[in-house]
Amino acid sequence: MKNSNQSSGSANFDCVDIYQEHGYLVRLTKGRDAKVQVFEVFGRPPMEREAQWAPETILRVEASRDVWDVLSPEVRSEFNRRLKAEGKPAGRWGADETAVQRLLGKELLVLLWAVELADVKPEEILVAIRNWVGLKAEERWWLYTMTAAATGLAHQSGMGWRGALRQALCFGTRNDAFHLGAVTGRGTLLPRANEAFDPNAGKPKRGRAKKSTPDDPGFLLAPPLPAE
Predict the structure, then answer these.
(1) CA torsion, points 192, 198, 203, 208, in degrees to nearest 10?
(2) Residue (of 54, 148, 156) closest to 108 by Cα position
(3) Do residues 115 and 170 touch, judged by C-beta distance below 8 A?
């Protein structure tokens, strides 16, 4: 891994410095047997007595670059949609390494674990992507937790929950994708009034608010409280 502090222009998804943040690192290898590798990185700030430091890592998955080339654009779109909603900068995949925020990295692994085996067909990969997009973030986190607890290492491909992820996410066809969330019959509760609702929230304010002074205390102009 590159031993340098990442600049704001480096390839990342809400993870500026993987050496100081607990996140995931996506590495693309080159050559005839090019692969995508995803490491969990236990980054941390260095202690004062450390002249240099290197975070511990765990290799979570290793899959074909052909698989990565199919799913990476869809994952990028999903992650950037979420980052935009949170008011954060959009991310991009780098040519060699990309740092990914911890929760987003877990979601990425759920999809890669489902399609990592060599016998997964192109049709299944496309179905898995659609089913993955149909899941809520919290559902992906839960699937990651259950899978990583028993079969979360790269060499455990296709075992236990890893095999179950393939059966679940790759189920369906391109024209009739099977969304796991549909099984529970999603709905909503009755709407509740938001007491903190402000119709002017987010709108630019014009002029400066007048400050109260000892000669003009604003609180004296407040409406009287009702008698009990």
Answers:
(1) -170
(2) 148
(3) yes
CB of 60 closer than 8 Å to CB of 89 = no
Q: What is the pLDDT of residues 98-115, one digit of tens each?
A: 999 999 999 999 999 999
Cβ–Cβ contacts within 10 Å for residue 170, how many? 20
* First-last CA distance in the chain: 69
> 194-201 contacts: CB < 8 A, separation 24 or more?
none
Sign of CA dihedral 159, 132, 115, 56: negative
Does pLDDT of 69 surpass 50?
A: yes
DSSP element (H, E) containing 144: helix 137-151
Place of tokens 């050559």: 31
Cβ atoms < 10 Å from Cβ of 140:
20
